[in-house]
C-alpha cells in the first residue's frame, strides 16, 4: 500500500509536497542504481553540464515520478534548468524518489502515490505556477490544463514534449481544432522510444505488475491482449515467452494481420471474453472491456490495463453491478458478481506496471529519456522557428541515441565503405 500523504495545502513555488521526507535516503539509493543502468542518458548529462543549454529556463514536467524520471530531472537540472515536476498518474509515484528529488537543488516536486483527484490537479497547477519555458508531458494533462485554464502561461512557453501515444492522440486532436498554441515534440515517435520503451518495456513491466498483484502462473493460461500496437506486441511477446496461449483483439486490419502472422489467434472481444484467463488492455481507447464482456468471463479471470488512462476497463460499471468488492492482495481487487463468480482487477485498472510494480526497467527508460533530453535541447535551438503543431525529431536523433546505447552495451557495428556510400547515393547503376 502507498504511504498516504496528508491533504496537500495549496502548493507554492517555494514548497514541494511529498508523502514522507524520511524516505529520501532509500530514494537516493534507488537513484544511484538507476544511474548505473542509464549510461546513454549519463553521456548526454555530461555534455549538458558543460554546455548548459537550459541556463535560466524552467522545465515543467508531468511524468511518472520514478527513479528513471529522477535521472532525467538531474540531467535537465545539470544542463542549467530549474525543474518543477508532478506525477501524471495518481498511482505511479515512487514516494522514496519524490522525497529524494525534493531535497535536491533546483528541483520542486509535488507527488505522492495514491493522490486524490483534487491533489492531482492541484499539483498540475503548481507546476504551471512555476511558469515553465518548456513542458514535458506524459498523457497531455499538463498541456491541456495550460490551454484550457491558464492560457496566459503559453506566452512564455516556447514548446513542449509528449512521452506517450495517448498524449500524442490528444495533441493531434488539438491541432485539428486549431487549439494547439505551442509546438509539441512527439518523443513517442522516436524509434528509440516506441520500438523500445513501448515494446520491450511495456511487455516486461506489465507482467511484472500482474505477477506482483496475483502471483498467477502464466504458462498454460490464455492471455487476451486488447490492442496490437507497439505496447500490445511487446505484451503478447512476453505472454508467449511465459508459456501463455495468446489471443489478440484489434480494430485495425493491418495490426490484426500482424498479430495473425505472428502466430496469435485473432478474434472479436465478444468471442475472446469467454476464453481468457488474463486480459491486458493496451489500446489507448476507452471501455474496450465492458460489462457485456465481463459477464462472459471465467470465474477468477484477471483484468489488467497498461494503457495510460484508467478508462480502458469500464471499472465504474463493474463497481455498480458487483455485489461485493474487497482488496485481497497488493493492488488486487476482487469483485463478486451477482452470478456468483469473481473477477480480479489488478492496479485499480490504472497502469498495472506502475500501480502494482515499478514501471519499465532503467535500461529501456534511458533510451526514452535521452529522447526527452534531446527534444528539450531541440526546442531551445529552434525557438521561434517551429509551427504550433505536433513535430517529430529528425532521424539523426535516433541515430545518436542508438549509438550511445550501443557503446554502453559494448556493441560494435560496421561502417559503409566509400564505394558503398557512392553506390547508395547514385541512381544510374542497375542490374
Q: What would you say this structure looks like, in words?
A:
- This protein has helices at 24-37, 39-51, 67-78, 95-102, 117-129, 141-148, 165-176, 191-194, 197-214, 230-241, 253-261, 269-272, 291-294, 315-321, 352-355, 362-381, 395-409, 418-425; strands at 58-62, 82-86, 107-110, 134-137, 159-162, 184-186, 222-226, 245-249, 265-266, 278-281, 301-305, 324-329, 332-336, 342-346, 390-391.
- The protein is an alpha/beta fold and 431 residues long.
- The strands form 2 sheets. It has an 8-stranded mixed β-sheet with strand order 9-8-7-10-11-14-13-12, with helices on one face. It has a 7-stranded parallel β-sheet with strand order 3-2-1-4-5-6-15, with helices on both faces.
- It is globular and about 65 Å long.
- The N and C termini lie far apart (67 Å).
For this entry, give a set of tags.
alpha/beta, single chain, seven-stranded parallel β-sheet, globular, 18 helices, 431 residues
Sheet with the most strands?
A: 8 strands, mixed
Helix content: 40-55%
| Mean pLDDT figure | 95
Reading side by side through the largest sheet, how are the strands ordered? Answer: 9-8-7-10-11-14-13-12
Which structural class fits the helix and strand makeup? alpha/beta
Low-pLDDT segments, ≥5 res: none
**Strand segment count:** 15
Shape: globular
Share of β-strand residues: 5-15%
N-to-C CA distance:
67 Å
| Helical run tally | 18
